[in-house]
Each structure stands twice: as structure tokens, then as C-alpha cells.
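Open question from group meeting: does this chain pack into something compact, or does most of it stay loose? Before anyone orders reagents, we agreed to write out a predicted structure and look at it together. Recording both the input and the output here so the notebook holds the full record.
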Amino acid sequence: MHKPPHQMLVIFGASGDLTRRKLIPALFDLHRQNLLPGHFVIMGSGRTGHTDESFRDLFRESLEEKDRDAAASFLQQLFYHPADQKSKEDFAALAKKMETLDKQWKLNGNRIFYLATPPGQYIPIACQLAGQGLNQEKETDGFTRMIIEKPFGHDLKSAQALNRNLKKHFGEHQLYRIDHYLGKETVQNILVTRFSNGIFEPLWNRNYIHHVEITSAEDMGVESRGTYYEQSGALRDMIQNHLLQLVCLVAMEPPTVIEPGAIRNEMLKVLQSLRPYTEAEIPKYVIRGQYMASRVRRKYLTGYREEKGVDPVSRVETYVAMKFYIDNWRWGGLPFYIRTGKRLPLKVTEIVIHFKPTPHKLFRKEEDNCSTCNQLIIRIQPDEGILLKFAMKIPGAGFHVQDVNMDFHYSDLSSAHLPDAYERLLLDAMNGDATLFSRSDVVEAAWAFVDPILRAWESNHDNPLHGYPSGTWGPDVADYLIEEPAITWRYPCRNLSEDTNYCEL
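C-alpha cells returned:
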């Protein structure tokens, strides 16, 4: 893999949690793999008054624990300059220090700004950068890019306003809206599984697939994020971005080429084809829940309303399950089911393709149903891999059939490095590859689908909020989304290859 061009990465919010837990560790791992640019500078910035050396000290101990020699060289690439988003003078001084480092390190004017800040600071920082001419890029001056963390707005109107204001200062080609889900190796492998295997693509449609199911479960509660979660909820936090992005990768048409614009064009078409809900359909097809206190293995788990920063009478959802349709030629009439929730039995994200049964059941009992049909399971996390379930004859007399598994686990590739999502996405941004970053029209199309649900919940308190005990798979009423008798959600195990009946949660 070729190295990215020489450049500077400027991180706003550099002393925050995201930088400490994700960004610096990911950059350090890239450094250890010799994948960073030959000349590379990391400039931290924020309101905290660090010096270059005190900023390096924030990460020194944790990096030296991993690799002392690599840490010594990596830390020399870290610099810091304090800047308040409201201070023109601070940004003028920042621009001057960037110019000095650019000349010293021969970076050719190449720079990426990473906004690891609360969303309210995105526009003020963009304005300040533009005021110093740091948004400009010319052939002789190198490139300028900006990476933006989610959330990309709070609803459709705010997302449109955010995009409109950012584009006053930066071109769309400069904006990289990061969604760490798309950086996961198993998410990227969806495209390869679909479009490089002749055995799958001919079957990837309503003629052969019965339904598609996507689950993203977390075993933890909101922890210390109660104040944030009160303004977000599961629909905004998970469905609008992460899960709808997975839906796009599963449902999109083959792009003409594996190139950012072509892939994002096909993802947009999926979102534009989502059948909107009527107000009457929302209570039936969108189930929301909130976790309650319970005891799991003798341990007391608090309810959402008992969490720090949460309103004692909060109606914010920690669980959402949905049934919807994609109205196009490939998927017309085929149901998609997605669910996400906190305080479920385990942390797991997976996609399940449920294939239709054979037209004539020669070996199955009459009471068998689609729950025993072929399934293709793409596990995003944990125990990343792919599992295909199909029927085999049990050895012995007669035609007794049972389901068996054929699986691949990424852990079997003992010599392969499974990169962290931020490793992949940071490297892509350095190389100017926007494939795994969201485009403004894709973001707004996702909000356009979600927005009517949010408005219905806010305007009509008769839309039910179902409680569910912590440690369970959510409200029982979610089972009724799948209307066919004896068919229900797949209940996964930590181990991809284990069947639900035998796994221990």
C-alpha cells in the first residue's frame, strides 16, 4: 500500500475523549505499520492551554506501553496550539504556527482539519478557518480537507442548515463526514461478498430472499452519556446513520466502478427508494422501547430513568425496531427489519439474509417454516466473519435433515492485521478516498426518512413507549413486526457459529 502524500492533521478538541481513545491510538498504529506519510505532523488545538510537550505527555505513557521505540518517534510529530473558537487572534496565531511547521516539515500545504468537537462548534471553527484563508486549496498549495464527526444535524432541517453553512466555506469535495461503522473491515466486505461472487448476486433480490434482518445490540446502558442521550435517543444515534448505511450497502445496485462517487450515488438511490410511513403506520411498524431496572446474574442493572443526566420521566427511546420496504425493482414487496438497543443481552452487530424456502418441501416436516431456511449471516462484531446455514442429511437410514453451518472467521487469518475503523478511515482521508464517508445528499436523504417518525413521537404522546427489562432482547411487541407465524428475529450468540439454542448469553 502506497503512503499518503506529506501533510498535516489538525485536530480540534485535541484533549477530548475521542482524541484520547480513538484518534491518537489509531494514528499510532498506522505509524507502527509504517503507513503514515513520510513527512507528517499532528497539530492539536482546543481551549486547554497545553504546550507541545504537555500535549505529548497526555499520550506518552499509554503509547510507550505498546511500543517504546515507536512512541519516541511518533511523539515528536505531535504539536499543540490553544485556540478559542470565538477568537480571531487565536486562529491567526494558529495559522502562523501551521505555516511555520509546513515549511519545516516540507508538507507542501497539504492539511486535514478534524473536528472532534461538539457539533455546535462546527460552523464557528469553519468560519474562523475561512477567515484565515485556511479553507483554500490551489494546485501549488496542496489540498485542504475537513473531517466531521456525527451527528450531522439533529433532524432534517438542522442537517440541511449544517450542510448549507459548511459549504459557504468548504467545497463538498473537501468535506469528509465520518461514520466509524463504515470503517469496519466486515462492513466493507459486504460489497466484496455481493459483487465478486457469482453465486450470490443472481440470488440477491426479492425472487430468492424472504426478508433481510439487521441487528445492532449493545449490552451496556448509556453510562456517563445520559445528558447527550436525552437529546439523541436510539433513532438519531443509531438508525439514522449507522443502520441505514448498512441497509444501503446490502440493498444498493452494483456501481459502475469501485469509486467514491459511483458507490455513493447507488447508496443515495436506496435511501430515495425507502417507502415513507404514513402517520397511522408509525405505531405499527416502528417500535420504541426504554430499558428498565432488573437483576441479571445477581447484578442489579439500573433503568434508563435512573441514569445520571436523565429526566426521571424521560420518554427517550433506548430501543427501536422497524419494518420497512424499499420500493424499487430489486426489492419491491420484500420486508426489511432493523433493530437496535441498549442493555440487551450482548454486544453484537450482524446482517442476516433469509432466503426463501424451496417451492416443494421434500425433506422438511410440514410445520417447518422459513426460520429453518438458508441464511447468510454477515457478522460485523464481535467474532467477525460470515456464516452460511444450509440443510444436510443426518448419517443413517432415512432422509433426516438438520441445519449445518459453513463459516469463515477473520480471526482465522492469524497473520492478518484487522485494522480499527478509525485507522482505515483516517488513512482513506489522507489519501483523498471518500468512498466510506457520507455525502451531504445521502445524509439528508436518511434524515428525510427518519424525520416523520421523530415528529410523530414528539407531537403525539399516544405513540407507545414500551419498557423492557435490562438484559432482555427488547419489548415483546417487537416480535409482532414479523407477521408470519412461527418466524421471529434471530437471537445471535457471541460466537458466530453457535446456534441460539446452545449459546450462553
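Observations to bring back to the group:
Residues 182-420+453-502 form a domain with the Dihydrodipicolinate Reductase; domain 2 fold (CATH 3.30.360.10).
The chain has two domains: 7-149, 182-420+453-502.
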